[in-house]
Design goal:
Elements: H1 2-54
């Protein structure tokens, strides 16, 4: 009986450790998604500005 209690205690400890890792990874993924979203928006803005600057209007539109 004592050996089962030791094994259960060990499994509970491992479960807590795994849960902690999962929570940390979830936070990291959320942070990375937010960073990626910001970088994507920046690149899109830069690309739109480049397109605006390279597409010169004909003289009769100015």
């Amino acid at each position: 009986m004592e050996s089962l209690e030791i094994k259960i205690t060990h499994l509970e400890y491992l479960c807590d450790q795994l849960n902690s890792v999962i929570v940390d990874q979830g936070k990291r993924i959320t942070r990375l998604e937010n960073e990626l979203r910001g970088i994507t928006n920046s690149v899109e803005e830069i690309e739109m500005e480049r397109v605006r600057n390279t597409n010169v209007k004909p003289p009769h539109y100015q």
